[in-house]
Amino acid sequence: xxxxxxxxxxxxxxxxxxxxxxxxxxxxxxxxxxxxxxxxxxxxxxxxxxxxxxxxxxxxxxxxxxxxxxxxxxxxxxxxxxxxxxxxxxxxxxxxxxxxxxxxxxxxxxxxxxxxxxxxxxxxxxxxxxxxxxxxxxxxxxxxxxxxxxxxxxxxxxxxxxxxxxxxxxxxxxxxxxxxxxxxxxxxxxxxxxxxxxxxxxxxxxxxxxxxxxxxxxxxxxxxxxxxxxxxxxxxxxxxxxxxxxxxxxxxxxxxxxxxxxxxxxxxxxxxxxxxxxxxxxxxxxxxxxxxxxxxxxxxxxxxxxxxxxxxxxxxxxxxxxxxxxxxxxxxxxxxxxxxxxxxxxxxxxxxxxxxxxxxxxxxxxxxxxxxxxxxxxxxxxxxxxxxxxxxxxxxxxxxxxxxxxxxxxxxxxxxxxxxxxxxxxxxxxxxxxxxxxxxxxxxxxxxxxxxxxxxxxxxxxxxxxxxxxxxxxxxxxxxxxxxxxxxxxxxxxxxxxxxxxxxxxxxxxxxxxxxxxxxxxxxxxxxxxxxxxxxxxxxxxxxxxxxxxxxxxxxxxxxxxxxxxxxxxxxxxxxxxxxxxxxxxxxxxxxxxxxxxxxxxxxxxxxxxxxxxxxxxxxxxxxxxxxxxxxxxxxxxxxxxxxxxxx
Length: 648
What we know:
Layout: H1 2-10, H2 25-29, H3 32-38, H4 54-61, H5 65-74, H6 85-94, H7 98-121, H8 127-139, H9 146-152, H10 170-193, H11 197-216, H12 235-250, H13 254-274, H14 292-304, H15 316-327, E1 329-331, E2 334-335, H16 349-359, H17 362-375, H18 387-402, E3 412-415, E4 420-424, E5 429-434, E6 450-454, E7 457-460, E8 491-492, E9 515-520, E10 525-529, E11 540-549, E12 555-563, E13 571-576, E14 587-592, E15 595-600, E16 606-613, E17 623-630, E18 636-645
Antiparallel strand pairs: 1-2, 3-4, 4-5, 5-6, 6-7, 8-13, 9-10, 10-11, 11-12, 12-18, 13-17, 14-15, 15-18, 16-17
Helix pairs in contact: 5-7, 7-8, 7-10, 8-11, 10-11, 10-12, 11-12, 12-13, 12-14, 15-16, 16-17, 16-18
């Protein structure tokens, strides 16, 4: 009886896969006056050792002190890279982002290593090169990436910076936050031992490039005027964290500081409002670090600075947003990777741990400890030019290693609003399926797709995404094969794949969504009518895709469809890392370590064809697509495929 009641409760019908909910958790609890009275001024909130506190830095850096100093020593003779005008222009000419980003990133990495080495050692021998690095960044026309330039400048045209305009993108925010920490820790040493013009010019740059634009420009990613159709993604918390870090480190006017922080609270509410009540992210697990992870960093640094934000960590939604990353973890470094995500886990374990501490999630703390125990590599502490994360990692490291390690033992996690399912079985099978819409942020056309792993080995996969280019975020996005539905584990109907309305939201977006998405935990069955995610040319009246994962690990994949017209044979696709063997009719054999998985189908009804794909995506090498091509067109029918261990 209890199982029946649970099944009834969890059997979910999804009316809409988008539900912007105006919770405004921060604004409703924090008014401007209370914020003004609570903020700690003049950087008195900073809890890390001052530059001159050598004993404090020795304790903080611990066993990594020499590693930090060695990295700085490698940059003592660094030759600062020139980023040419043509490096910027290469993005609009060929779509290549790296021509600009590679030399810029090398300069940024070198300066980051020099600053951390000087903080760790404190003898002044890195200050000359630090001054060179600061001078380099202050001399640059812009800190913005070439790929982002045209989106935020007034001209909306060129990837070359406009010397008359400062704007904030992800990279500019990162650089600003890093240089603000550099100013805070080293301004006196630079003034005394090099020149007072160095910190003076740096302060002016931070004010002109970060503080002033943030308050003057209504960037779309800040979603200060959001509607239910406004897309919100990782840009929001990522930029807000970096800008507010900069404000807290250099702005001592209480009114200006209060205004900036309050503006950021309004903006961050827009990010939280965009999330469904189930806490899942539509951007994919690879964006945890810069989306939910940056939201945590933002809230944590505000809490240090006296802002009354601690209440929000008790909100169930905030905890669920964090635990999404632990539920998506499969094992041995593999993770569910729908959307623009890598199948290899990349979330920063220090952030995962501290998020668990803040929200009272034992699961996240143990998961972070598990991630550490996999490598026992203390170098995770060093987060490049993200000074805040590096310092926080140093503080929390002892707690990470003393926490018992564990992966979430939850047998299934169902996100009813986002329409995403994870099932973990003790026999070694991990299964995930999704409904949703083809209009999500970082979306692929993959409504109804699934992944299956066995003993932490990929069986049926999501290919993920390749290296970002200009094409990735343009009108040509869905000409990239990794974005197309015919390279996901779903059918091509009447010769027609799924489609999207593009990168901009539209009132029509629900046309390309799943319908009647349900999960029955009693039977381990996920089902969705995916016909609504196809163009009308598919002639699909209904196409119900159903997955049932038996207790013995056999996966039943069933398609029940009705078409108004059958013009071309249907095609059902399966993506794998293992090379398929289709030598036996009706069977696709996949070697998985020392065992084999068989995908069985009706040989009289389908012809199997295998296509080898280039190693063009993150996390995988060569991939394969097995297409089961129906031999004849059908207006109505049922397909059934069974995947499971080969019986010996």
